[in-house]
Specification:
Elements lengths: L1 H11 L34 E2 L9 H16 L5 E6 L6 H21 L7 E7 L10 H7 L1 E6 L1
Parallel strand pairs: 2-3
Antiparallel strand pairs: 1-4, 2-4
């Protein structure tokens, strides 16, 4: 009987979970997933989209201009543009939206002079979130195009 009391006493000393803020991330900022791909992806800017949209915002166009500049200066680099969505919506809908997002970046880069043979696109829909969470902060980080060296 004394052994049972000791076991319960030990459980009572387990610290409570850390409090979380309104974003659901606690005191730490959300972390990004490590880059996939075969080369150095750090030279590329991720671009972001508004909810349920695939048109390029001004900040996305600026990021794509920087990506185009890098690609034109490094003609041996080929990329895959990965279209991503937040968790809301069906898998099928988000795959189509992710494809439209990747295609928007592809078209813009080609218009800036990047040879289209150096680029491919893929949609991951909502299957590869950059951050975990069920709130606007997480969703905004997941509505994106990533650029991966292939």
């Amino acid at each position: 009987m004394a052994l049972v009391v000791v076991a319960f006493a030990a459980c009572a000393k387990t610290p409570p979970p850390a409090p979380t803020d309104k974003t659901g991330f606690g005191s730490e900022a959300p972390t990004s997933r490590p880059a996939s791909g075969m080369g150095d992806n750090s030279a590329f800017r991720t671009i972001y989209f508004d909810f349920d949209r695939s048109d390029l915002r001004a900040d996305a166009r600026e990021g794509l201009q920087a990506n185009a500049s890098y690609l034109k200066s490094n003609p041996g680099v080929n990329i895959t543009i990965e279209g991503n969505c937040d968790e809301r919506g069906s898998a099928e809908y988000n795959l189509a939206l992710g494809k439209r997002r990747a295609d928007a970046a592809y078209t813009y880069l080609a218009d800036l002079g990047v040879d289209s043979s150096r680029m491919t696109t893929v949609s991951y829909g909502k299957e590869r979130p950059a951050v975990e969470g069920h709130n606007e902060l997480a969703w905004a980080k997941n509505r994106r195009d990533d650029f991966k060296v292939r």
